[in-house]
Design a protein that fits this description.
Low-confidence stretches: none
Distance between the termini: 36 Å
Number of domains: 1
Largest sheet: 4 strands, antiparallel
CATH topology: Alpha-Beta Plaits
Shape: globular
CATH architecture: 2-Layer Sandwich
Oligomer: single chain
Mean pLDDT: 85
Structural class: alpha+beta
Order of helices and strands: HEEHEEHH
Strand order of the largest sheet: 1-2-4-3
Number of strands: 4
């Protein structure tokens, strides 16, 4: 996502559906990311949704990022919970494991990018 900002390009987020599901105590958001087909990662999408809808302090879970053939468009489905314990009861634990793996991988990439190589003498 950082490279898109470097070129002065900011993707457009268009809300398709935003529903409060009181039965399951969650908010369900479906939106389109224009111009990001094949470039958007789940953690980046979560950050964008959190900023767009001002959801800091809440648990945002990316359920699905669907690309469209021939279009630079991604449709994302996100569940927003107030309580992480409730989210872990409702959502498949495999999703949390995958998100945790991607967070670790992203942290490794970020730390590797900040390490400055030593000068050879």
């Amino acid at each position: 996502m950082k490279y898109l900002k470097d070129f002065g390009y900011m993707p457009i987020i268009q809300t398709i559906n935003d529903v409060n599901n009181t039965f399951l105590s969650r908010r369900e958001i479906i939106c389109n990311f224009t111009g990001l087909g094949g470039k958007l990662k789940k953690l980046e999408a979560v950050d964008m949704i959190t900023k767009e809808f001002k959801l800091s302090g809440k648990v945002v879970i990316p359920m699905r990022l669907q690309t469209h053939v021939g279009k630079p468009l991604i449709t994302g489905t996100f569940y927003v919970y107030d309580d992480e314990r409730l989210a872990k009861k409702h959502v498949n634990p495999v999703i949390f494991e995958r998100l945790e793996k991607s967070k670790v991988k992203q942290a490794e990439v970020d730390s590797a990018a900040t390490v400055v190589p030593e000068k050879l003498e």
